[in-house]
Amino acid sequence: MNTQVGVIDAPTAGVSFSQTHAHIREWILLDSQSSTDYFTNPSLAKYIHDSKECLMLSTNVGQSMTMQKANVLKWGEVWFNKNGIANIFSLTSMIKRHRVTFDSDKKAAFLVHTPEGIIKFIISPEDLFYNAPNYHTATQLTQALAENESFYSNQQR
Fold it and tell me: Among positive and negative, which fits the CA dihedral 23, 56, 91, 61?
């Protein structure tokens, strides 16, 4: 995937991607060919906002442009396009932030070692490395942390 970032005066029309696998919008892909972190699902990103820069995304399907960015929890800012088909972390940007391991003898998966634990990006039937966030579990974990926090003093928080 080739990307270009720049400032433009007015947006130009981009090519819309056709969506062939709806479930991919629910996944986060770890892509070794991407140079940009790019999200399309507003359930996975917050604070979606306009940018003074634009991203022109070129793929084998065509080109797409966005002038929006968003924040991903525990990651930070990413490019955002609600009309895209995939949520993508660039393997390069992931390596810059976390230790990433891969051992095909054990399992065909990238293991991202974060302070919170290991996040697995497993191989899909489409031959993409993905992580499917469990929204129910994540919500329960957030609520449990908030409840546990009530036992601590302000200095301990």
Answer: positive
| Spatial contact of 130 and 28, defined as CB atoms under 8 Å apart | yes
- Find, among 28, 34, 37, 32, the residue nearest to 122 by Cα: 28
Query: Tens digit of pLDDT for each residue in 40-61?
Result: 999 999 999 999 999 988 777 7
CB neighbour list of residue 52: distance below 8 Å, 6 or more residues apart? 7
Q: What is the pLDDT of residues 124-146, one digit of tens each?
A: 888 899 999 875 544 444 444 44
Q: Which one, of 108, 148, 101, lies nearest residue 128 by Cα?
A: 108
Give me the residues paired with residue 102 across strands.
110
Question: Are 131 and 30 contacting, i.e. CB atoms less than 8 angstroms apart?
Answer: yes
